[in-house]
Amino acid sequence: MKLPRSVQIKEVGPRDGLQNEEKMISTEKKVEWINKLSKTGIEYIEVTSFVHPKWIPALADAVEVVQRIERNPNVTYAALVPNLKGLERALEGNIDEVSIFMSASETHNQKNINKSLEGTFPILKDVVTEALSAGKKVRGYVSTVFGCPYEGSVPLDQVKKVIDKLFQMGVYEISLGDTIGVANPRQMDYVLTELIENYSSENFALHLHDTRGMALANTIIGLMKGITVFDSAAGGLGGCPYAKGATGNVASEDLIHMLHEMGIETNINLSTFMDALRVLEGEIEKNFPSHQLQIRS
After folding, report:
1. 49 vs 99: CA distance, rounded Å
2. What is the 8-class DSSP label of residue 209?
3. Which terms in the Gene Ontology molecular function aspect does this entry carry (predicted)?
4. Active-site annotation holder among 240, 255, 276, 280
5. Which percentage of the chain shows pLDDT scores above 70?
6. Strand 204-208 with 137-143, pairing
7. CATH of 8-296, one of 3.20.20.70, 3.40.50.720, 3.30.390.30, 3.40.50.410
8. H or E element at residue 30
9. What is the distance between the alpha carbons of residues 36 and 32, in angstroms, rounded to a whole number?
10. How far is CA 90 from CA 17, 42, 96, 169, 188, in A?
11. How far apart are CA 169 and CA 133, in angstroms?
């Protein structure tokens, strides 16, 4: 197997993991968790979302969280930003990096953003332009790349069109989302092969949900195709409020464990990472779908 020597894990738990939780986590606990994550060796944490609090009340304290965390100079602190108003709040909090997002499928984009694909592009272009002008790097998320809860299969040409538009705006990396966890390794190989023909594997990250238990298998394909950036969420938390049945992201600790066992470096101390996760125990009233957490309980 031709595999990279090291990969970067981008921890999205504080944003993607908490955005869909019914029980509200206090600002104090969020800050404590992020501070502990910052000491694990991880290099990138998506700490919150500046979507209007009406849509994601669990992250209504975005500015306060960003302003209160203890910044580790070796960590990039990023946040999801939907529009110029959200960017204004993100800049107020002095976020390090901006993430924009949209879907590859029309229906999911309408449900998630309340706009058509064509109607979304100019809004995101404004965000990217202003963020770059403010000296912030911009990352792009594309959801439903491998399947949509409303439309089923998503034509690859449509995925490419969205990706092309985002790269033209100036994003440096696009995270390819398996939003409902339907991708299989053969499909993953095909999609990545097609996309890497037009771009480099260095332009992409994978954002895999483990709804059907295939996230780690798909990760292997990504590694073999040269992908070296992977999104994951501590504990396997997460899910999309506009994708019925979608369970959480691949658990960061399961991903870290697999990579380390394969001799692939992440720069993350797994034991310290597990200790950080325990900040949320008792705060979230459900079992974490993390294998490592169950083993170490």
Report:
1. 9
2. B
3. lyase activity
4. 240
5. 97
6. unpaired
7. 3.20.20.70
8. helix 27-37
9. 6
10. 19, 22, 9, 19, 33
11. 13
